[in-house]
Each structure stands twice: as structure tokens, then as C-alpha cells.
Amino acid sequence: MNHEEVLHEQPLVVHDLGHEAHDHHHKQSFITHYIFSQDHKMISHQFLVTGIIWAVIGGLFSVLFRLQLGYPDQAFPFLEDILGRWAKGGRLDQEFYYALVTMHGTILVFFVLTAGLSGTFSNFLIPLQVGARDMASPFLNMLSYWFFFSASVVMFSSLFVQTGPASGGWTIYPPLSALRDAMDGSKTGMDLWLISIALFIVSTLLGGLNYIVTILNMRTKGMFMTRLPLTIWSFFFTAVLGVLTFPVLLSAVVLLLFDRHLGTSFYLSDIFIQGKILPNEGGSPILFQHLFWFLGHPEVYIIALPAMGITSEVISTNSRKPIFGYMAMVGSFFAIATLSCLVWAHHMFVTGMNPFLGSVFVLFTLLIAVPSAIKVFNWLTTLWKGNIIFTPAMLFAIGFVSLFISGGLTGIWLGNSALDMHLHDTYFVIAHFHLVMGVASMFGMFAGIYHWFPKMFGRFMNNTLAYLHFWITMIGAYLIFWPMHYEGLAGMPRRYYDFSNWESFKQFEGLNQFISIVAIIVFFTQFLFIFNFFYSIFKGRKVTEANKNPWHSTTLEWTTPAHPGHGNWIGEIPEVHRWAYDYSKDGRDFIPQTEPIGENESPH
Amino acid sequence: METALAQTKQQRWAGGKSPFQVSYGKLMMWYFLLSDSFTFGAFLISYGAIRFSQNFWVDHNAVFNSFPGFEANLPLAFVSLMTFILIFSSVTMVMAVHEGHKMNQKGVEKWLILTIIGGLAFLGCQAIEWTHLITHTHEVLVDGVIQHWGTTTSHNPWGPHVMYEGRMVATPGPVAFGGYFFGITGFHGFHVTCGVILNIIMLTQTKMGVFQRRGHYEMVEKAGLYWHFVDLVWVFVFLCFYLI
Q1: Between chains, do A7 and B21 touch, taking CB under 8 Å as contact?
Q2: Which of B13, B35, B153 sits opposite A264 (nearest CB)?
Q3: Which long-range contacts (CB under 8 A, 24 or more apart) does A278-282 make?
Q4: Buried-most residue among A64, A363, A554, B163 (CB within 10 A)?
Q5: Do the Cβ atoms of A382 and A313 come closer than 8 Å?
Q6: What is the mean pLDDT of chain A?
Q7: Which of A3, A265, A576 is opposite residue B179, by nearest beta carbon?
Q8: Which domains does chain B have, with CATH numbers?
Q9: Which pLDDT tens digit goes with each residue over A164-215?
Q10: Residue ranges of domains in chain A
Q11: Can you tell me whether residue A263 is helix, strand or coil?
Q12: Cα–Cα dist A424/A353, whole Å
């Protein structure tokens, strides 16, 4: 067979696409341009906007259950107006409280911080920063979004079924989630949850395959892997983790569906429910936990790695300094990705697993502190003596580092199985993971949006609103989650509906109220961002051709036209001659990657 | 020489081309298969974990001892035939890909048709096997009463034997057997079904001369990768359910 031809097929095809794109006679209908678009930039917008809608829903849920937690003895009649019988007399129904907690977790983890973060920025930045016309397979890329969209529709519809959405916690442990009779939330809502997640897994798989292959195969001339911006490295490892671990969740979901509908006993054994003995025997609920956390833990890094990549890029650009320890950054991405697949059972120390097995997982868990610390010190040393420009994106990136340190340090506590006995399922855990992966990754996302907005939409966002948004969110995040550490150390368990019956937790009544008030303020502060975002898309200051590289960045995406069409570059794709971090070099503020190495240039 | 080698290796990663000298589609297929192997891996490891937590497991030679049309006790004969059919269909797939390299449209069509027939035959055998297991009942002693059970996801008539009214009768066996057997072979069967559909699409495309015009049969090669993977998975499924 003619091997060469096969190899050359893709570049040629992609090249044609480029010509087509800047040929202005080529017209696209509204549907192919905005809805069933195959342009990676439009698909990233779709991911972002869907993610924002989900973030508002997921955030609103947390406001609702924070009302309950802060004011357990008070009625809020407006709740009955919006929730009906789920909030009779203005007080949240107990089962619906669990539904809110479950959906808050599911939505934020999967729909916002996986699809909204990695989906948006992998799609947007990979082709632009590696120098490609589009993703390897624009069609599969489009399918990836539409699978995500259908997963969203199914999950959203579960909010409206008679028996309510899934409410067994976002980890949906059986047997609670496997038995329809266990509670209302384990009826139709649970099935919809499982179907939605299965669709979601297909979406991540299609997206992930595309990201990996585009990064490996479609780099422009001169773009060695070691010249890639760290964003791309982070998306690469994120995609690899997704491709390897999400299928295991699919297995877990399929087996759970069988247990629910086909009478199998994968996870069930010796159960009494409502006075009946179930025939199931021989299954193991712990098996589900193993399968779930084999995804569940890497999932944390699927969420955190893109935020780390974005942070690295934004911090280096706005410190006007090369990133400190580029290869160490790449190496630590690799180490984190590898180790993250070997630590899942640290979520299961109290399930009765063998303590000797536990000690292995303690070891690997604590080892993750090493690459994480490498990253943190590299960010700090990049900032050190930098010529720092405090753009909103930069503030959010620094905020990410701060939150990542604060939340990461408590990870070292929780990774010890002995300490975990006491801290397991308390507010200490809530505080830990919200800081280190929840809020921190949100900050990474905000940094990315503020930084790349001019490239995404060809306009600027309003800085004043952005600064307000940052400071209130930053201070608010610490005010919400810092006190939770104390509550958790005192043993206050998570997922409880009302603490006022417990003598030991009565002292936290005021503190819980305080947390709820701040949470509500922070939630409504996000509308500053949302307004700013949508307003700026249509009315923001325009990016001009002269000002198309507003942050004086070295990377390829800023060499495209101010408003790039499908195909990204007019004419040839630029060739790359240097790494992505030549800032403040040889007396020059920055040197774009496309500039050939000068004769007397010093090595970096 | 060595430096030259190192240089070409360096150039491979220099961008502007694929570092592995493969098209994006083939690379994507490889990563997909890697991902899919994790799905099957999770299933098989779960199966192992549950199976080895049981005191008793079924005797494969007793469960899988029938051959359609024969009354005799023929342990594992039918599944051996199924395995042979599937592996043979891999051989015909290799031939199809080979003819594709030679740009021989007729040859590709012929071998693809044989591959599709092999896939359908395998699925048919699986349907027969499942039907036999589910509908063919066996005596089981349940709570002191003789009942007649088929092998299903919730019933297992292949438990340890006890003495009852002067003869040996089976008691209920671990239900996990049926669940994992039907679950995993079913998931594999689903993959074979997808493969057959994929091959039918390849066949129609070949017949329409799409690949001939394109100048290469790489799509057939990609479908072939998938097909071989499905075969390979069967080898593991066969090992775990019929042999061990």
C-alpha cells in the first residue's frame, strides 16, 4: 500500500479546510456555524456556556442546602414557591436535602469541572497552541459535545421526575443506590443518573481521544513536545487519565444497572429491606467502591490538571518570566497522573479493608505530595522577582496557587489512614476537597476565561467587575471553607440534615450560619462574572488587529488573526522555532515562538 | 551512524508530521482499544474478586456440556467451535486488509463477506448457548423441595450436591456466576455486534469503490484492528469462564 499517502492525507485535508475558511464566499448556515459546528473554537464555546449554566444550577443547590444547614429551625416560604412539596412549609424535605447534596456534587464534578473546564480549554487551546487547523477529527469532536449535551438533558430531566433526582451522594454507593425500595432517590432518578453518566463517559472518551491524537500527530513544524506550552501538557495528561479511568466507571455503572434491573447480585448480599429478605447474595458493595474510586480519584486530577496548566501559562506570562523548571513541571504532571491511578483506596480506609493494604495506599498518597510540591514551588519561583502584572487572570492564577496549597496540606493529613479514621466523612474532608480541587479548579477556570476571552470572543471583559469578582470570591472561599476544618476536627459529619439535636455540635450554630451567609454572598457575586461574560461577548471593547496579543504572550494562538475563522490561520500555519517561555530575554520583553533563534541569542 | 539514528528520532518529534508514522485515525483506534481494554479489565477483575470470595464455584464441564443436535456429554465442545469461528474470522480479516494493501477491491469484498459471516455465526452460536442455559432446567434442592431452574442472572442450579431421597441432587450455586457470565459474554457479544455492523459498513463502502478512489484501504485496516481486539478479548473471556 502507498504508506506515504496515508500519512499525508491529514495535513492535506486540513490544509484545504484552511483555504475554505478564509475564502469568504464559503457560507455556513446558522445551524452548521452555531449548533452542529465542527470548529473547535465554537465547540469550546458550547462547552463553556453549557458549563456555566450547570455551574449556576449546581451553585444554587448549594445555596439551598446551606440555608437548611445555617438556619435549621427557620422556614423560608419562598422555598415552597419554587420547590413545591419538596419544601413543605418552607423547610427542605429531608430526602430532597440529600438530592440537593448529590446533584451539587455530580453537577460540579462532572458537568462543570470536567466538561466545562477540560472540554472548554482543551478544545479551544489544543489546536491553537500546537498549531493545527482544527482537532484531528472535528466530527468526533462535535459528537463529543452532543453526547455531553444529551447527558446534560438526561440529568436535568431527572430534576423533574416525581420521585426526585438521585440522592445517594455523588458516589452513589450501593446498596442504597441499587435498591429501588431504599428511598425515593433510588427510583427513576437513579436510573437517569446512571444513563446520564454513561453518555457523559462516551463524551469524555471521544473528546479525550481527539485531544491526545491532536497533540501527538498535529503539532506544527518545529513544535517539539518539549516546546509545547504547559497548558497542552496538562490537557494531554488529563485526556490520558480520562481515557484510562472513565471506562472503569462505565463498568461500575453497567453492573449497577444490572443489579437494579436484571436481578444480578454484583454489589448486593444478605439484605433486609422493609421486613423482606432479598434473594441477592455473594455480591460486594466494596467492589463498587473500588471500581468507582479507580475513576473517582484520577477524576480529581482530571479536574485539577487543566487548572494547573492554565495557571502555569498565566503566571509565566504575567510575571514576564519563563516558567521555572519547565521539565520538572512536565515530569510532575507525569508523576501526578501515574500516582493518581494508584491511590484510589485512600477513600476507603474505613470500609474494613486490610490495614496492610491501606498502608500501601497511604504511601502512594503521600508520594503525590512530592510532584504537587514541585509544582507549587515552581509557580512561586516563577513569581519570584517577576515583573508582575496583576490582570484579573493573574489574580485568579495566584488565587489558585494559594487555594491549592491550603487544600493540599490537609491532603497530607487525610492521606494517613490513622488520622482518616477520625476525619473520614467529616467537614474536614469537605473543606479539604473544596479548597484543593473545587474552588481551586474554579479559579483555574476563571483565570483561563479572563486570559483567553479576547481570543475566544474577540472582545475584552470589564476589569473592574473582574477585580470585584476576584476579591469577593477569594475572601469568601476562605471564609466558607476555613471554619469547616474546625468543625471537622470536632467530628461534625458531612451530609447531615440538621445538627441541632447533637450536644457536641450545637456550639457550631453560629459558625454554620456565618458559612451560609458567606456562601450566599459568594454565589450571587458570581453573577458579576456572568453578566460581565455575556455582556462582553456582545458589547465588550473590541480586539483590534494591532492589539491582538493583549498580554504580550509568546504562544501560537496570538499569531492568528484577531477574529480567526475556521482553520485558524490565513495561509500557512506558522513554524515554531523556540519553546513557549522566552520572556524578558536578551533585553526583549517577549519573543514569540514563531521567531527563529537569532545568531547571538543566549540559550535559555 | 548512531548520531544519525538519534537525529532521525529527534526529527520524528519535531512536529509537522506524526511521530509514530501513523494517521490520526489509526492512533485514535489504538487509544480507544486501550480504553476499552480497561472496561473489560474492570469486568474481569470484578469477576475474579467475587469468584474467589466464594467457597464454591460451578463445574464448567457440567454447565457447558451440550452441543446442539447431540445428546451426548460433550464438555466445552460447542464453545470450542465458537472460539474457532471467531478466530477464523480474524484470519479472514487479515486477508481483507492484505488485499486492501494490494488495492484489490474484489479480494477485499470477498474476505470482508467471510468475516461478516464469521461474526454472525459467532453471534448465532452465542444466542443458542444462552437460550440453552436459560431455558434448559435442572433439578435443584431449595429449602427441602425439588425445583427446576434454568441458569439465569438470578438463579444458579449448579451448586454443590447433597444426598436427597437416596440420590445426589444439586443445591443452589453462587448467583454471581450467571450475572458475570451473561454480563461479560453479553458485553463482548455487543462488541461483536458493533464489529459486524462496522464490517458491513466497510463492505458497502468498498463495493461503492470509496476506498479505491481514495487510494487506500486504511478504513478497513482500522475496522480490522477493532475486530482483532474483540477476538483477543474473547480469548480472555474464554479463559476466565470456560477454562479456569
Answers
A1: yes
A2: B153
A3: A278/A179, A279/B154, A279/B175, A280/B175, A281/B174, A281/B175, A282/B50, A282/B53, A282/B54, A282/B174, A282/B175, A282/B176
A4: A554
A5: no
A6: 92
A7: A265
A8: 25-136+177-243 (1.20.120.80)
A9: 999 999 999 999 999 999 999 999 999 999 999 999 999 999 999 999 999 9
A10: 44-273+286-590
A11: coil
A12: 14
Yes or no: say if A111 and A61 are a contact pair by the CB < 8 Å rule.
Answer: no
Contact B183 A255 (CB under 8 A): yes
- Written as one letter, the residue type at B80 is S
Size of interface A-B (CB pairs under 8 A): 156
What is each CA distance from A598 to A221, A243, A554, A576, A595, in whole angstroms?
18, 41, 16, 13, 8
Q: CB within 8 A of A215, min separation 6: which ones? A: A126, A130, A228, A232, A235, A236, A239
The CATH architecture assigned to A44-273+286-590 reads Up-down Bundle (1.20)
Integer Cα distance of A225 and A232 in angstroms: 9
Scan residues 445-504 of A and list those with Cβ closer than 8 Å to B. none
Higher per-residue pLDDT: A215 or A601: A215
Give the whole-angstrom CA distance, residue A54 versus residue A61: 11
Spatial separation of the C-alpha atoms in residues A434 and A404, rounded to whole Å: 10
Lowest mean pLDDT among A17-21, A91-95, A187-191, B152-156: A17-21
- Determine what percent of chain A falls in helix, strand and coil, rounding each to the nearest 5: 70, 0, 30
Place of cell 449546581: A58
Residue of A237, A265, A291, A578 to mutate, testing the B interface (most B Cβ within 10 Å of its Cβ): A265
pLDDT in tens, A40-60: 999 999 999 999 999 999 999
Residues 119 through 178 of chain A touching chain B, CB cutoff 8 Å: 130-131, 136-137, 140
> How many CA atoms, within 13 angstroms, populate the side-chain half-sphere of residue B235?
10
